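Entry type: protein chain
Record version: 2
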Amino acid sequence: VEVALMLDVTGSMAGTKIADLKVAATKLVQNLISDATPDRVRIALVPFSEGVRLPSSANSKARGNPADSITVGSGRNATTYSRTDCVVERTGTNKYTDVAPGSGKYVTALYKTNSWFGSACNLSTNEELLPLSKNRTTLLNRIDKLQTSGMTAGHLGTAWAWYVLSPNWNSLWSSASAAAAYGAKVQKIAILMTDGAYNMQYASNGIEASESGAANGASAAQAKSLCTNMKAKGITVYTVGFALGGDQNAISTLAHCASDPEKAYVAETGFELQQVYKEIALKISPLYLSH
């Protein structure tokens, strides 16, 4: 079994919510990777907020070699944006596919201004993506160190939850983290978790944009398209909405992404979140315990 665990680490998750998520995600990992089944399950962690932060060794393979900075406008109206260590969406023909990255098919680097908020990506190395791993200790340490900041570009977490499960993206990782081929005797599962509606998207140059000005449109619409194509590849998708407060936009996005209604969960409290992750683990376990 290969599991991609998408984790919302946006600013709204600060405080008790990130603490609750850490407890629930920790128990999920402990339930799926035990001493009795050390080689049956691998799990990837995909934290997201305004972007996704990749291991530095994967950056050039995913985004190519973009410029250190770009300037938009001219004269007094010129604004310079600096490249960050995070990536955002892919544009063009393959924006909703898992075709391998390459010339004309790279994801875009995230660019930000040198403003009061700073020019760095708000995801630190603590929130760096971790590709498929069977090392329980490594996974638990990463979960424990998660911090929160930024807005909710949920389509980016969705995309990378797919990419870490796709054999087409194996060039980014070591052989130990390479995803199995589609059709192999491996179950591929994505667990997409968020606490709110997706509200951040980007222009083709990697600069934050409104829904109408974004290269691919609204974040939620992008996530739905990615989910549709991910499921078509045979990936089973669970969704977990946490403390959504009845937000119908978030609920409808997650419902669309889930493989079926029974795999779309909503948890309002930390205890409920733990129960949801426990139930998902119980559904996954027979996939590997019976072989």
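Comment: The mean pLDDT is 94.
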